[in-house]
Amino acid sequence: MRDVAVIGVGWPKWGELWKKDIRNIFVEAALMAIDDAGVDHIDSMYVASMSPGLWSKQEHIGAMMADYLGQNPIPAVRVESACASGGMAVRLGFIEVASGMSDIVLVGGVEKMWTGEDFTAILATAADQEYEAFHGLTFPALYALMARRHMHEFGTKREQLAMVSVKNHANGAKNPRAQYQREITIDAVLNSPPVADPLNLLDCSPVTDGAAALILAPVELAKKISKRPIVQIIGSGAATDSIALSDRDTYVELPAVKKAAEKAYKMAGVGPEDIDLAEVHDCFTIAEIIVTEDLGFFEKGKGGEAVEQGLTKIGGKIPINTSGGLKSKGHPVGATGVAQVIEITEQLWGVSGERQVEGAKIGLAQNMGGSGASSTVHILKRID
Ligand code: COA
Predict the structure, then answer these.
(1) What are the structural domains, with CATH classification, of the chain?
(2) Residue of 150, 169, 281, 331 marked catalytic
């Protein structure tokens, strides 16, 4: 296998983009990434997107995006793994470059969620339709069940969930691409409208339009053309689990996350103690707490305390979601996993401005679909 580097990134601002359709949103990010990498062509492209058919009535977006990007006849395909579509696309691009099949691969993600369609019902198609969605279980409800069980088993406090949101909004306030660039308080979270007890509106990631794109190339090529430090993907792991939460033995851990992490750590030859910062899938505040435990950053049951002690803030033991996380920067589902890898790459390049984690050398990006039925973990390292 060849070593693979991220050589360019494109991430325009996310939010409610009523004046743009899915193709404009994607093409803007892809062109930014191509410009940033300074390449004159791409060999192949992956377009992560959960549900363009239901939101925009548009399928076949691999070919469509290659067309509107002026890149026909390159091979291009949509990648779908619900909210983990982006992470899965990064993995496929990584495999294609590592295998020697292609040299320059664009990996992008896009979701256009504000179209007037019922976003809660569309998102719920990523759950088990017959055993969950038809009975009224939405994603906020599924994560609320996990939150209740975590509180019951480990004494995790309601306020600790709120602290995840407060921290991520503080980071997102410093991210010009975030949907909600504002700080919030614990009281604001606790008094925001209830969505699915114990989760309130400010425990939930929002509904977002947006895209993100990056360019992958062999490290040897990156050394010749890149003016920035080389950031290599040193580990990639992916795993799946039961689609229905009720089919699991536990509600307080996410086995697919643990498995994907185990594989990524093994490939990278590092452990949780070597990671300087991480982007994790905080679709709901409880998700960040469970995932940081399952990645091995904290003991099972101690994720809530870690947030309260400030261990996951910028400047803490292991900064989590310096981008603002899904909570503050937004969650255009297909784009999320790609943007996570961009945040880590920029941190390792040392260009994250006010959000910069000093001396960051190794970072991790964890993305997941549904209530953890699919997950990816990527580990990136700056090579000096
Ligand atoms: N975080 C911060 N602010 C939010 C927000 C969020 N998650 N969601 C909405 N807001 C803001 C809006 O901007 C709006 O502010 P304004 O009054 O100043 O304009 C206000 O809160 C009300 O917004 P509204 O659009 O009416 O909220 P809603 O009740 O329709 O939707 C949620 C709120 C939480 C239900 C919705 O964002 C949601 O379903 N989130 C989860 C998405 C999801 O499941 N993703 C997949 C994860 S697996």
Answers:
(1) 4-118+207-225 (3.40.47.10), 126-205+231-383 (3.40.47.10)
(2) 331
